[in-house]
Design a protein that fits this description.
- Two copies of one chain form a homodimer.
- With about 375 residues, the first copy, chain A, is α+β, with helices and mostly antiparallel strands.
- Chain A has two domains: about 5-135, 3-Layer(aba) Sandwich (Creatine Amidinohydrolase, Chain A, domain 1), CATH 3.40.350.10; about 140-360, Creatine Amidinohydrolase (Alpha-Beta Complex).
- In chain A, about 35% of the residues lie in helices and about 25% in strands.
- Chain A has ten helices and 20 strands.
- In chain A, helix 7 packs across helix 8 (about 170-180) and helix 9 runs antiparallel to helix 10 (about 270-285).
- The N and C termini of chain A lie far apart (about 45 Å).
Chain lengths: ~375, ~375
């Protein structure tokens, strides 16, 4: 892994080029990326303040002092206890600024505190900086992403073995969560989406008590966390024997996935991958039924740069890792989505997921 | 349950008194409270914009259109698809404003979009409004909170039965999660905190591979979600027979919990409950080892108003529900915390948790 010092240097180069005096990072992926410290974001102000020069300052509630103190402290740790005036603390720690960048995930409440203290400061989004650094994964990160993807593959294989008509969406979601953890996932990257039959047309459906039935497509979308890095896989099984029309619909999505994958070569603009996958679905007459972007980057966050979406002309570079997940959604009827995580290399795109993409019928 | 229309009316009364033209609410508790709609917050703009008069506008990515369209639409649903210019959408939907309030949990990135579009608008935190309305629970909410607390009690009873030396923190956490779900929790309110032995001094410790050992205090802090409402309970068991010193330390925390509970009567300022619990711990010589506030309100969020903390002089009112969770943390040695959820009624405080608070020794 690149050391925290190396990462900080990269970040500071971008701060300089964008004339950003200070970076305010929230608990979560950005704070972890630069410090290795994990906390739970909540209403208590937690922020890593990174000046263009000099030591970064990590501001945390007193209760995190011991945990943060255990890590290698190349930053100044400032803990605060209840009753303290945070405005004074920030003003004295940071001083007046012209231009600062703020973590896009910082809570607006904490951002308002910064705005009120720093008066004249102009704020921009820190994602232009942090996203640019984090978007290219080093070898350690690629290995972690590979392990994480492998956990997802193994859980999908378990799901294929255990899934039965009569099982509820919630039961299947719980089975998958437990499988991921039993194989060694340190966490799940998000709550599993299990969307069966007509629920399938809701891309972010939350599992309910609905029982899987013969004739259902079942969309299963989930991921693991390994060494902090997320995976994300989607497969759509068919309960029973699929008729010709269902097979054809599935084939279109599988072809869109494959075409998107083939388009993901070094130098191609991100939006070209989206356009390639979308063209397959549109060509089959379902353009209006593919109601989301083709993919998103993945790493410490399960959604991060690069976004595989219309309007993103940034060229793909080796070390970029993202999902390709085209889908067709027929309102009130069904959904089909097939998703793999793909890494860009100099010799072409590589899938991190190995689980088969062919239609699986549960008979 | 109060209808969405009644809730909106309450919110608007406060908007008027605070001269707030518009309220911008994020996906999560506030959006759910006013619409019944649940989505997953992410980098795609989702916001419920509530004007002081006229129909609220719910702005969501296209992929949520079907789900949002299913609910009773007393608001205008505006969905956007990739490639659309959100600034134009917001500007045309909302128009120029003088003063707006923003959800404290809205992501800073989305808040920046609003700031940039709404130029001259002065922003304040919406928590003064939404917190004030949500802080008093109606009968439906109290029943849900009771069911949620009951799930937590039952899971704690299971933990008491199953916990063994040699079990890891992670195994115990997984057992508790599965127990909560098997009893019918629709979700967990946060990732269980299982902190054994020396890990106990980290109030928000994330469960690790450490095995429970004889002589450990084990802090177990978790909660369920029922009908959207969270519970939160903490108990600290002892593995083996506790010696006199350990028993005495535990007794202090139990006494602090009881004293805080007795202080939670209608009309008392929130900070008096904190002071009452804290005085017990300070009186025993451990004032510096109680490194967090005594409690937090609970409802659709597991942390919300009222905060039981120094500086909060707001008087307790019937229908307020919050945690009382004093603790003692000895760095590198142990932690002890005992937490119940308490509701204020006209005839005094009532505990929603029934699981015993006496020291349980696992022998």
């Amino acid at each position: 892994m690149n050391s925290y010092a190396q990462r900080l240097e990269q970040v500071r180069r971008l701060m300089a080029s964008q004339e950003v005096d200070y970076l305010f990072l929230a608990p979560g992926a950005n704070m972890f990326y630069l410090t290795g410290i994990r906390t739970v974001p909540d209403e208590r102000l937690q922020v890593l303040a990174v000046p263009r020069e000099g030591s970064p300052i990590l501001i945390l509630p007193e209760m995190y002092g011991e945990a943060a103190g255990r890590s290698q402290a190349w930053f100044n740790l400032v803990t605060w206890c209840d009753g303290l005036d945070l405005s004074t603390l920030i003003a004295s720690a940071v001083g007046p600024l012209k231009r600062a960048a703020v973590d896009k995930k910082l809570w607006a409440g904490h951002f308002l505190t910064l705005i009120n203290v720093l008066g004249e400061c102009r704020f921009v989004e820190a994602d232009d900086i942090m996203g640019s650094v984090r978007v290219t994964k080093d070898d350690f990160e690629l290995e972690s992403l590979g392990r994480s993807a492998n956990l997802a593959d193994k859980a999908m294989a378990q799901a294929a073995e255990k899934i039965r008509p009569g099982m509820t969406e919630k039961e299947l979601a719980l089975l998958i969560e437990n499988t991921l953890k039993s194989f060694g996932a340190e966490d799940i990257s998000f709550k599993p989406i299990i969307a069966s039959g007509p629920n399938g047309s809701l891309p972010h459906h939350s599992p309910q008590e609905r029982e899987l039935q013969r004739g259902d497509f079942v969309v299963m979308d989930f991921g693991a966390v390994a060494e902090g890095y997320c995976s994300d896989i989607t497969r759509t099984f068919f309960i029973g024997r699929a008729d010709a029309a269902s097979r054809e619909l599935y084939r279109v999505v599988q072809q869109a996935n494959e075409t998107g994958f083939q388009a993901a070569s070094m130098g191609a603009p991100c939006e070209r991958v989206d356009a390639a996958a979308r063209a397959v679905i549109a060509g089959a007459g379902y353009g209006r039924n593919f109601i989301h972007r083709t993919g998103h980057g993945i790493g410490l966050d399960y959604h991060e740069d690069p976004y595989i979406v219309q309007g993103n002309a940034a060229p793909l570079q080796p070390g970029m890792v993202f999902s390709i997940e085209p889908g067709i959604y027929l309102q009130g009827k069904l959904g089909i989505r097939i998703e793999d995580i793909v890494a860009v290399t100099e010799s072409g795109p590589v899938r991190l997921n190995q689980f088969p993409r062919e239609l699986i019928e549960i008979t």
